[in-house]
Design brief:
heterodimer; A: 2 domains; about 80% helix; B: extended
């Protein structure tokens, strides 16, 4: 082999490693997306639509809850405006996902548009928590994860639409794999960072939204509420620093002249304190 | 034929609306710096959103009816405990999921 070939071979091997790593990382999503996708395909099939539409929707829309909503709207004979508004509102939470990925995606190059397109809850959770394997290309690794998840979703929904009514597997409870995945990734976030306040904000915002909003609206509501809490706290902390500085200044200005003429030596220490 | 066309247009609208929500922050802050307040909370968003996703998974639990969300809370407790202990993602996730499937399929908490 020439040097060139050796190099190519090495890169190819590294990419294979990266792919295998992505494959392992996405196993829980595979186990969750297959039954969830099947449920979607089964519903769409039940509403009287050809399986090709399940395929097209999962390929082009690729949004779990968004597609379930679409089936409901199709069944209700909704107009295009309703589809547009309902989908925008339901998926608006994704705008918050992007906010925390601006930096991570900045060097992603030509796969960036796809990464943005494929940003589901599960892919977001994996991308924000999983470390890129040492020596691997970040954009390639992210692309593998996003594309694999997408593939699982398409496979599940087509399977569900084609043989949904024929299959009688007892998969009850299997989608809990996604809950377990989120629990594990939350704990990983806890290990990876020293900040604890986001968890407090999440419990507050989550519990409030669970009580006040319908199941369909609670995720967006809780994310908005939680973000507001984070912002308020940030402002408060900054405010505190400002206030501290100002009282220090005031202290220095008002106290000094009084003490200064009387006892000279004390002044130095009081200044140091303030 | 018109039905097919209408379905395709509908899918296109849903796809476009979904993509819009995902691309929005990148369009707004792609070329210019995000405001300072955003970059400070940017790091705090992922842990908060992940915990909110866990809570979101409990949205359909009937807290006031038997078994009062016991299978969900119990399994989440086991997954979290196992993960804090062993810190093996696959082990935590699969043990948890199998446990939950067994709990709901065999109706283990029916005594509540």
């Amino acid at each position: 082999m020439t040097d060139m070939e050796v190099k190519k071979h090495e890169i190819g091997e590294r990419n294979t490693d990266l792919f295998v790593n992505a494959l392992k990382t996405t196993i829980p999503v595979f186990l969750g997306y297959i039954p969830l996708g099947m449920a979607f395909g089964f519903l769409l099939d039940g509403a009287g639509y050809h399986w090709i539409y399940a395929f097209l929707m999962s390929l082009l829309v690729y949004a779990g809850s968004g597609q379930f909503l679409a089936v409901a709207l199709l069944a209700a004979g909704a107009g295009l405006t309703e589809f547009l508004v309902a989908t925008l509102l339901l998926n608006l939470r994704h705008a918050f996902y992007g906010l925390s990925l601006l930096e991570k995606f900045s060097g992603a190059g030509k796969v960036k548009p796809y990464l943005i397109f494929a940003l589901t809850d599960e892919t977001y959770a994996l991308l924000t928590t999983t470390e890129v394997p040492a020596g691997g290309s970040k954009s390639r690794f992210y692309f593998y994860i996003a594309a694999l998840d997408h593939l699982y979703w398409i496979t599940g929904s087509v399977l569900g639409a084609v043989l949904g009514s024929m299959l009688d597997l007892n998969l009850e409870g299997m989608t809990f794999v996604l809950t377990a995945l989120f629990v594990v990734l939350t704990i990983e976030q806890y290990f990876n960072s020293s900040v604890r306040f986001p968890f407090v904000a999440a419990v507050g915002a989550g519990a409030t939204s669970l009580i006040l909003f319908s199941p369909d609206n609670m995720l967006l509501a809780s994310i908005i509420l939680g973000t507001l809490i984070l912002m308020c706290r940030e402002k408060l902390m900054q405010g505190n620093i400002h206030v501290n500085k100002r009282t220090r200044k005031l202290h220095a200005v008002t106290v000094q002249p009084v003490i200064q003429p009387v006892i000279q030596p004390v002044q130095d220490s009081s200044q140091e304190e303030s | 034929m018109t039905d097919t066309l209408q379905m395709l247009v509908t899918i296109a609208v849903i796809a476009l609306a979904t993509f819009t929500t995902r691309v929005l922050p990148f369009l707004c802050f792609g070329s210019r710096e995000p405001p300072a307040i955003l970059s400070t909370i940017e790091k705090n968003l992922p842990p908060m959103i992940l915990l909110l996703l866990v809570i979101y998974c409990l949205k359909d639990v009937q807290w006031l009816v038997t078994p009062y969300g016991a299978p969900e809370l119990f399994t989440i407790g086991v997954v979290a405990g196992l993960h804090f202990w062993k810190r093996n993602a696959m082990l935590s996730i699969f043990t948890g999921t199998s446990l939950y499937m067994a709990l709901v399929q065999f109706n283990v908490f029916s005594f509540l």
